[in-house]
Design brief:
single chain; 5-stranded mixed beta sheet; about 375 residues; Aspartate Aminotransferase, domain 1; alpha/beta; 2 domains
Length: about 375
């Protein structure tokens, strides 16, 4: 299906709402039913009827249809955060006594889910080097139910061979799930490579305006119904209709924003790779990236993220560099119109916190929609300092 059709028209039945170009925000918690027969029909299938906004809401339903189509999946559910979507997807596949194989160094709250939350309920895990298929296979146990992937991850961009992972998992009767937030549906479609569940932090590229927190799970109709009836309806981590409308607005420009961020980030990464004060640049589209060929095989672009190792002998040098930058906001997350930096040095020397696993000279950049030459000027003067 044409991407522009999905972003701008799919799921929008304008005749149902006065031919308004923008879908309405159906800001209602409750929906009336005209008869006992209609009441019974609605409660027999709340996923496809409007009963209560904790379940199915008309504005959220439009967003579900669009993201599912973008990922080439049968259906999708939207959650109030990316971590809620990840938790729902994982919880839907495991029970006490089960085991998960998960890539090493996933998103921090996914790590906490695996290491602190799930063990309380008898679910164990093994972290593996996702770049090594032999290590993934060796970690599989008789009680393994889920292979959790994150390709690329959001700091150092390790990839997994998705087709190989899918084949391995299916041979062992294991469900696969991937966090596809980094590439977005524009640049990578894991379901087309036989991955079973695709999750997103919709806070990032899908929304694109840094004003909504949300998450998405995409999969088959059967899996989505299961998650809807259990994890979503029970735990209630739902977005508001207004948030859904803002993300629908953001999707209108998703394809354009992704390409702009990709082009600008690659140009800036190439410039930094040549700078004498930069030790190394990590970007999947650079030929120097260890998995460059795999990235080109299963992705169509790399978005706006890259990281650098600053050539520095003391953490104070990193602090000076970051503090001299004027055109990058120091902040977490990514995917909006604004360019960001996330210095690992900031996680050091925090009272009561241990030593981070990432080195202090690692800095992640996200390139938004600004002029790349304007951003390079800022990097040049900061590096000169």
């Amino acid at each position: 299906m044409d991407i522009s059709h999905i972003l701008n028209h799919l799921g929008e039945d304008r005749e149902q709402y006065f031919n308004a170009v923008a879908p309405p925000v159906v800001q209602s918690s409750n929906f009336a039913l005209p008869s006992i027969a209609a009441f019974r029909e609605a409660f027999s299938d709340e996923l496809h009827h409007h009963v209560y906004t904790r379940g199915n809401n008309p504005t959220v339903e439009i967003l579900r249809a669009k993201v599912a189509a973008l990922e080439g999946c049968e259906d999708a559910l939207v959650f109030s955060s990316g971590s809620a979507a990840v938790a729902a997807a994982v919880l839907s596949q495991v029970a006490a006594g089960d085991h998960i194989v998960c890539v090493r160094s996933p998103y921090s709250w996914t790590h906490i889910l695996m290491t602190r939350f799930l063990p309380r309920f008898g679910v164990s895990h093994t972290f593996v080097d996702g770049t090594d298929m032999a290590e993934i296979e060796a970690a599989i146990q008789t009680n393994t139910r889920l292979l959790y992937l994150e390709s690329p991850n959001s700091l150092t961009y390790e990839l997994q061979d998705l087709e190989a992972c899918a084949r391995l998992a299916r041979a062992h009767g294991i469900v696969t799930c991937i966090d596809n937030s980094h590439a977005s549906p524009i640049f990578q479609n894991p379901a087309a490579m036989d991955i079973d569940m695709v999750v997103h932090s919709g806070t990032k590229y899908l929304n694109g305006h840094s004003d909504v927190v949300c998450g998405v799970v995409c999969s088959t109709k059967e899996r989505i119904r299961k998650i809807f009836e259990a994890e979503l309806m029970t735990l209630g981590a739902i977005p508001s209709p207004h948030d859904a409308a803002l993300i629908i607005r953001g999707l209108r420009t998703l394809e354009l924003r992704m390409q702009r961020s990709h082009d600008s980030a690659l140009r800036i990464a190439e410039w930094l790779e040549q700078h004498p004060k930069v030790e190394r640049v990590l970007h999947p589209w650079l030929p120097s990236f260890p998995q460059h060929e795999l990235a080109k095989k299963q992705m169509r672009g790399a978005g706006g993220l890259f990281s650098i190792y600053l050539k520095a002998e003391r953490i104070e040098e990193v602090e000076v560099f970051c503090n001299r930058l004027n055109r990058f906001l120091m902040a977490v997350s990514w995917g909006g119109y604004e360019s960001l930096m996330l210095p690992m040095a900031g996680f050091y020397k925090i009272p009561g916190k241990g030593t981070p696993s990432r080195p202090w000279n690692l800095i992640r950049f996200y390139i938004g929609l600004e002029d790349p030459d304007w951003l390079i000027e800022d990097l040049r003067q900061a590096l000169a300092g």
